[in-house]
User: Which sequence fits this backbone?
């Protein structure tokens, strides 16, 4: 794991801890209360059965501070694997086509650039999962309450499902470029 990813992970854990302590929350549950999640980077949005979702027959849930930390730890592994493969693609294409003048940042994901929307659920199997939506820019000022959907946009937009019960990830989807 790169030093920057480790550093970012530690900073995210510290941020969540400080927010929890500073708000003097009586228990470890984080809900949709703005005082807890209305930060510059994170939002927790309540799951709704309406619309197209990866989740079928799921029920809304909440997240604890520990669950957010666990999700971020799994996320780091996910992105490390993704970036490793993308680095190989970048190297290969750059070598074969130096005239393209490619930029590595267009291939890999740098988590510190992104805002996150967490949508936690309990699956029909009783496992807790969270769909996390990432975006590096948006004109939607209600991003803390409304899911951001974007076509294209490259790696500025992606999402993934983290299974908090099994500490695994699936359905990593990075937007393409038109």
Assistant:
């Amino acid at each position: 794991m790169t030093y920057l990813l480790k550093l970012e992970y530690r900073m995210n854990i510290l941020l969540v801890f400080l927010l929890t302590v500073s708000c003097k929350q009586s228990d470890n549950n984080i809900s949709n209360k703005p005082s807890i999640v209305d930060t510059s980077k994170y939002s927790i949005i309540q799951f709704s059965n309406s619309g197209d979702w990866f989740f079928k027959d799921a029920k809304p849930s909440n997240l604890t501070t520990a669950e957010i930390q666990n999700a971020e730890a799994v996320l780091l592994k996910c992105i490390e694997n993704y970036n490793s493969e993308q680095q190989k693609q970048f190297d290969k294409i750059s070598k074969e086509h130096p005239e393209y003048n490619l930029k590595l940042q267009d291939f890999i994901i740098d988590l510190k650039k992104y805002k996150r929307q967490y949508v936690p659920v309990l699956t029909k199997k009783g496992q807790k999962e969270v769909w996390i939506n990432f975006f590096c820019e948006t004109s939607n000022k209600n991003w803390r309450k409304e899911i951001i959907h974007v076509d294209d946009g490259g790696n500025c937009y992606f999402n993934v499902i983290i299974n908090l019960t099994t500490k695994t990830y699936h359905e990593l989807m990075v937007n393409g470029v038109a």
In short: The beta strands are 29-30, 42-44, 59-60, 63-64, 115-122, 128-135, 157-163, 168-174. Residues 1-38 have pLDDT under 50 and may be disordered.
